[in-house]
Amino acid sequence: MERKTPFIQMENIRKTFGKVVANDNINLSIYGGEVHALLGENGAGKSTLMNMLSGVYTPDSGSIYIKGKKVEFSSPMDAIKAGIGMIYQHFKLVDNMTGEENIILGKKNGIFVNWKSIRSKINDICNKYDIAIDLNKKVQDMSVGEKQIIEILKVLYRGANILVLDEPTTVFTPLEVEKLFNMINKMKENGCAVVFISHKMEEVMAICDKITVLRKGEVITTIDKKNAKIKMLADLMVGEKVELSIKKDKVAIGNEILRIHNLSLYNEDKVEVLKKISFNIHRGEVVGIAGIAGSGQRELCEAIAGIIPIKQGEIFVDGENIVGKNPREIIDKGVSMSFIPEDRLGMGLVGSMDMVDNLLLKSYHYQKGFLIDKKETIEKANSIKEELDIKTPDIYHPIKDLSGGNIQKILLGRELDINPSLLIMAYPVRGLDINTCYTIYNLINEQKKKNVGVLYIGEDLDVLIELCDKILVMCNGEIRGELMGHNVTKEEIGLLMGGATLEREEIDVV
User: Fold this and answer.
1) Molecular function (GO) terms listed (predicted)?
2) Neighbour-count burial of 272, counting CB atoms closer than 10 A to its CB (0-12 exposed, 13-18 middle, 19+ buried)
3) Which residues contact 327 (CB under 8 A, 6 or more apart)?
4) Which of 26, 58, 376, 472 has CB 3.0 to 4.6 Å from 13, enough for a Cys bridge?
5) Which residue ranges of the chain lie beneath pLDDT 50?
6) What is the pLDDT of residues 291-323, one digit of tens each?
């Protein structure tokens, strides 16, 4: 029997950045008609490896073969011509253009655009891969799932039969995940090779045929999915046995720490993004918020933190109305509140600074005199580095050079260091490896035991159910339902996220 030629074959690939070895002697083969997962902790080398496959980086040494032919990519365009389509976490779409216009954007169509031919080709692709979407809709009006489909159609239109999906379901509803998996299975049936990068282990087990585990820039193993278990894969990623359970301790609920009443908010275009939001959080309580991206979660967090002004409604923290106060005034009033934003580098930390200076950003104004004493902050930085197992050359290394998981640990460590009474967390584990995720979940429970109230905005519905005492579901700036964490299903949350109404006594439907 003749052995199949791999669609992708990477031999002895090595890539370094200064003293950091990102990939070391990588050997990887991926075949057509299979979905191949890449797993590894943040900083394991997955992104670097795929960036070499897509022409963003060039290997220092080693060889890449596409369908048996040796290639040397000097740009992403070379990779596209070789049939490789990269679908990134952050979409590269033009919001005020239609899906159809985005698909053909960048293609040379001559002076005149033959729309009939273009639409015929797109329609053939949609039929082949069982894709249903309104291509005349503008991207700005699309859901996250629809935008993902447009990105996939873009690369299929360019002739890709090797697709790399990087964290494709980060903010998907269960229904959107199901639709994507149906598309991936159709690609597999049509002979495509699909590389699936994800930190969601259940999804890896559901959709993939083979799994390659990377650790510290090296391939640890490649195994068939049928021989794998989630716990085994997690141990391989970390290099030791890890605990994959959320310790949800029973804590006596304390006094009310946060109360929001009739909160409404308008964006710069005078569109109402929050509509009469009302809820409360008590000390020792973890309240989760579920919702598809753009339902108002970010605006809600920023309103509570004093980052954006409130037009209508009240926000009470520990009985004090904080509406109209900026973040510094809120702190000066004795309100201890920590905010971990969605954009950890754009808004939470300064990438060019080291750990010490980023910790100082939160505390320097408490020091007296003209000179800043860094001694105490240096001690805190070393303590946080050790306690949270932050992988960095030293505490003076620019944090922009660290992996996403280590950056998030620094941010979390800084915020917890001020001993908050209210902790607001927006997508704190987005894109983080499984071990780091569970470290953060357990830190949340430690805060709960310290009588801290926690507002947790997340996208993994299993985690929301397991971690939270109460779950609020947002849709189009409204709270559609308030559910108890011990008595709800993913399907019920998913329906509310999509705007449906549930009718059963155990759910308080708004």
Assistant:
1) ATP binding
2) middle
3) 305, 306, 307
4) 26
5) 1-2, 504-507, 509-510
6) 887 788 888 888 888 888 888 899 998 888 988
State the Cα–Cα distance between residues 378 and 38, nearest whole angstrom: 37
Query: Which helix (H) or strand (E) is 238 found in, with range?
Result: helix 230-238
**Domains 8-238 and 256-336+420-509 are alike in CATH topology:** yes
Are the C-beta atoms of 452 and 421 separated by less than 8 Å? yes
Report the C-alpha dihedral over residues 304, 362, 409, 443, rounded to 10 degrees.
-60
| Residue type, position 217, single letter | G
In the three-class reduction of DSSP (H, G, I as helix; E, B as strand; rest coil), residue 447 is classed as helix
CATH number for 8-238 (one of 3.20.20.150, 3.40.50.300, 3.40.920.10, 3.40.190.10): it is 3.40.50.300
User: How many helices and strands, by DSSP H and E, does the chain display?
Assistant: 16, 21
Helix (H) or strand (E) holding 119: helix 115-128
Q: Structure tokens of 428?
A: 């704190």
Cα-Cα-Cα-Cα torsion 452, 454, 460, 465, nearest 10 degrees, comes to 70
